[in-house]
Design brief:
6-stranded mixed β-sheet; Methyltransferase, Cobalt-precorrin-4 Transmethylase, Domain 2; 23 strands; Heat Shock Protein 90; globular
């Protein structure tokens, strides 16, 4: 079946009147660096020309489009000790999916690379993005008019609009999507007919009608309401994983669970499962004992929702991960944030996935725009937890929620982070941080006001807060605001 599809694709390509900017034919030229540059150029060209895929083909003569065969064997090729395919994938940023098919036509070997169009940002090979100019491969930066056109096209192309499944019968769509959860979350009655249900899903951009009861399912519909994410290849690897460790590091895993449902349909179950894995603490009241969670559920809920909403779906083979340690929770999502982590509190959030984010807010899965991280910080202060930490790696964003520990157990950076976040939260609440408010935040007794003063001085030295009134010389009445105020 795969061979037949590959031959059909090849036949359609060789029938093209001339080599296009999204197809490249080769005979035996297979220098690895050159292949990487072509993958970048062809992926970017496919987006620019609104093609569903680009193709790099060996075994076809470029001038005549005649099948001549090739001696290139990509799966036998190594770069050092590494196979060619993972080596190529490792140097493409952001990740772009490509498939390699090897087959024969009339006893002549053919190699077909099928390359997905870029999304969100141009694909780079190592340090440079490439583009096709006619039949030539060039650096994108040298052709500003093509670069502008590509960015304009990318602004119209989103992950949510791409297709997770094509031309399904209506009954198959409803078998794959949890439509009862869709109507329940929007507090609506389920329509009485299949056609009306599908029409409502189409209105929300979850499906697309092709007529004659044939339907496409968009990535938005699949990622939010799949009964089984595995039913949709485009989103199957985006399932959320929860990993619980025995101690403070990753040396011993207690359990690992991977979600199978769409994010919206499975969200409440996910939060319930995470809550069950978190350590509790016994609080002794005046008349009874009660179990209290070590972390505020609102904070966990918002951070998980943020990881879902703000992830970069163009990074292949990875989805959001929640890791539970003895002393913290780490919530990781693929992709770097679009704004500086220091501005998470005050800046309106920017998401790569606006349709997904908008539906999650309408369904009351997460807070209204701009208030989620504020609530996380507020809850951390209310519970007197260490300040949450936000880290950025080369390909991921990590939010860390720490378990309670006394001030003496916090290092200098913990205290500075708490001071900055407190100043920022006070400022967006139309207040200013003072020695008194910081003492309350950190649980410092009044007689130890000098401890709070040292934390403030350290945070000023780091350039994260500043005096609200630089002319005020009174330490007693001094107040402070974040550096950007």
């Amino acid at each position: 079946m795969v061979r037949a599809q590959s031959i059909e694709t090849l036949n359609s390509l060789v029938r093209l009147p001339h080599e296009t900017e999204w197809v490249e034919f080769k005979h035996n030229d297979s220098e690895p660096e050159e292949i990487g540059e072509y993958l970048s150029a062809l992926s970017n060209a496919a987006t620019l020309h609104e093609e569903n895929a680009a193709y790099l083909v060996w075994g076809v003569e470029s001038g005549t489009h005649r099948v001549v065969g090739t001696d290139f064997r990509p799966r036998q090729r190594k770069i050092g000790n590494e196979d060619l395919e993972p080596w190529l994938a490792r140097h493409l940023h952001p990740d772009v999916h490509f498939r390699i098919d090897e087959f024969s036509v009339d006893s002549k070997a053919v190699v077909l690379f099928s390359i997905k169009p870029c999304s969100h940002t141009p694909v780079r090979w190592k340090d440079h993005a490439f583009i096709r100019v006619g039949s030539y491969k060039k650096k994108l930066k040298d052709y500003p008019e093509k670069e502008r056109a590509l960015w304009a096209r990318l602004s119209q192309t989103t992950f949510e609009k791409e297709l997770a499944a094509r031309a399904l019968a209506g009954e198959d769509v409803l078998a794959r999507l949890d439509y009862p959860a869709f109507f329940e979350m929007l507090d609506q009655h389920i329509p009485s007919s299949r056609a009306a249900i599908l029409s409502r899903l189409e209105k929300e951009c979850m499906t697309q009608s092709l007529g004659d009861d044939r339907w496409n399912v968009t990535n938005l519909g699949a990622i939010l309401f799949a009964r089984k994410l595995a039913d949709f290849e485009a989103v199957a690897r985006k399932a959320i994983r929860v990993i619980v460790y025995k101690g403070k590091d990753r040396t011993e895993t207690i359990k690992e669970q991977e979600g199978s449902r769409g994010y919206a349909a499975g969200f409440e179950g996910l939060i319930s499962y995470i809550s069950d894995q978190l350590p509790g603490s016994e609080e002794i009241g005046q008349a009874l004992r009660r179990e209290a969670r070590a972390y505020p559920e609102i904070a966990v809920r918002e951070l998980v929702a943020n990881a879902i909403i703000h992830q970069d779906f163009s990074i292949r083979g990875t989805g959001p991960t929640i890791e539970v340690f003895m002393n913290r929770i780490e919530i990781t999502n693929p992709g770097k944030p679009l704004i500086d982590t220091l501005r998470f509190i005050d800046e309106p959030p920017r998401s790569r996935n606006e349709a997904l984010a908008a539906f999650m807010r309408r369904a009351k899965i997460c807070e209204e725009r701009g208030s989620g991280i504020d609530k996380v910080i507020f809850q951390a202060e209310l519970y007197q937890l260490p300040a949450p930490e936000f880290r950025v790696t080369e390909h991921h964003t990590i939010a860390i929620l720490y378990a309670r520990r006394p001030l003496r157990g916090m290092d200098r950076q913990d205290r500075i982070r708490a001071c900055y976040q407190h100043a920022a939260l006070q400022y967006v609440s139309r207040q200013a941080m003072t020695n008194t408010s910081l003492r309350k935040r950190l649980g410092i007794e009044e007689r130890n006001y000098a401890t709070a003063s040292r934390v403030i001085a350290d945070t000023i030295e780091e350039g994260l807060v500043k005096p609200r009134d630089p002319t005020n010389t009174s330490r007693k009445h001094a107040s402070y605001v974040p550096f950007w105020a």
